[in-house]
């Protein structure tokens, strides 16, 4: 097997415009392309995240699923940042609440969680 990296992570938003603003403007991810797929009444927004991408989708009446970090399925999406404290401060200034900072007991790295507009758990890691 020759798996090298994660190509993309796909997220389905309940409010496409709100999530687009969050990921592009609040988190500052670069928009690569945006397409409306009329046959599916769905938007697909590709956002650059380092050498990977986040695909943000909209669908009419998407089903709900558990989003807590301990729910079965994808646990959370984690972002590595160069300046951990500054990033937390920027998020807080933009009205994004972050959890208290924790320390990974195995690596010693600091991390915290915050939520996207659909309450999906997102992590920052130094």
UniProtKB/TrEMBL annotation:
<feature type="domain" description="VOC">
    <location>
        <begin position="5"/>
        <end position="126"/>
    </location>
</feature>
<dbReference type="Pfam" id="PF00903">
    <property type="entry name" value="Glyoxalase"/>
</dbReference>
<dbReference type="InterPro" id="IPR029068">
    <property type="entry name" value="Glyas_Bleomycin-R_OHBP_Dase"/>
</dbReference>
<dbReference type="InterPro" id="IPR004360">
    <property type="entry name" value="Glyas_Fos-R_dOase_dom"/>
</dbReference>
<keyword id="KW-0479">Metal-binding</keyword>
<dbReference type="InterPro" id="IPR037478">
    <property type="entry name" value="YwkD-like_dom"/>
</dbReference>
<dbReference type="InterPro" id="IPR037523">
    <property type="entry name" value="VOC_core"/>
</dbReference>
<dbReference type="InterPro" id="IPR051332">
    <property type="entry name" value="Fosfomycin_Res_Enzymes"/>
</dbReference>
<protein>
    <submittedName>
        <fullName>VOC family protein</fullName>
    </submittedName>
</protein>
């Amino acid at each position: 097997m020759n798996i090298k990296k994660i190509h993309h992570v796909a997220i389905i938003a309940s409010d496409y415009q709100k999530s687009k603003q969050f990921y592009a403007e609040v988190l500052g991810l670069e928009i690569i392309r945006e397409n409306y797929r009329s046959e599916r009444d769905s938007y697909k927004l590709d956002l650059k995240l380092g050498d990977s991408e986040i695909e943000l989708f909209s669908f009419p009446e998407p089903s709900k699923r558990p989003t807590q970090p301990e729910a079965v399925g994808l646990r959370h999406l984690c972002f590595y940042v160069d300046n951990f404290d500054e990033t937390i401060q920027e998020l807080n200034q933009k009205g994004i609440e972050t959890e208290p900072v924790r320390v990974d007991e195995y690596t010693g790295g600091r991390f915290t969680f915050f939520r996207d507009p659909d309450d999906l758990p997102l992590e920052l890691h130094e």
